Every structure is written in structure tokens, then in C-alpha cells.
Amino acid sequence: MPGRGxxxxxxxxxxxxxxxxxxPRELIGVAAAPRPGRVAYAVLGSDFTLQLFSPTLDRVLPxxxxxxxxxxxxxxxxxxxxxxxxxxxVPGPRDRVRVLRHGARVFESAxxxxxxxxxxxxxxxxxxxxxxxxxxxxxxxxxxLWLLSTDARxxxx
Length: 157
Hints:
Blueprint: E1 7-8, E2 26-32, E3 41-45, E4 49-53, E5 59-65, E6 67-74, E7 83-88, E8 94-95, E9 98-101, E10 104-108, E11 112-113, E12 115-122, E13 131-137, E14 143-148
Antiparallel strand pairs: 1-2, 2-3, 3-4, 4-5, 6-7, 7-9, 8-11, 9-10, 12-13, 13-14
């Protein structure tokens, strides 16, 4: 895959120039949890299926289909296990944010303007819990950042 400008399905705990891709699929996104639990990493394939990995890169939990490029792993509730914050796999002028815990949907937002195309997680509000920040490409070409937080003090920021 060298020279194609894509991320190969190559996961390794160490830099290894002789490593070969695990599969022929191409990856379009990766995320790391700020505070990993059983889940530490997520890898999104070009088929919009997300695979979840432990800190030692062992597969954990079933694959999650239908995840868009806007995703993050964030421990929103402080239980020591990151939730998956994800956009739709079908980008459009409007999107929705979903939060999945152990594969089950626990939250879905109302429509937000723009296509959510990237995400990250950190404790943005300073309450000791992870928050998720998602970036949306708006129809007119501008961008919008969205903050998903369980900290009520962060509302309206």
C-alpha cells in the first residue's frame, strides 16, 4: 500500500518495518481513549465498521457497524470504561451524535448542522471526566465544533 496515501490495516505495539497489514482493508480513522479501560483504541475501516482494542491491541467487544469518521473514545461517566461517541456513517447537511456503552446506544442527540467528520476526547471542562469534541463541516464550507460533556457547568460554552 505504500504511495497510495491511505492508512493500512497495520496495528502493532512496536514500530516494526517488517510488519504486514492484518487485512487488505483500508483504515479511515483511529482514536485512543484518554483514560483507557478494557477499551483503549478504536479503528474505523473504509466499510464504516469500528473495531475496538485493549491496551495490548487485543480485540474486545463486537465490531460496531455504521460509525462515521466523527468518533472518539471518552469516559463520559467516570466508570473507568470509555464510551464510544460516534457520528453517522452517512455524512450529509445534518448529523446526530450517538453515545454507545458496551455496544448499546445510551444517548442520541437531536440533529446538528453539518457532517461530523472528526472527533477527539479529553477533560475539556476540568471536572475530572472526559468530554468529546466533534468537528462538523457545514454546508457553506465553514466548520463548527461541538462539545459533548456530562459537566453541566460546561453547558453553553
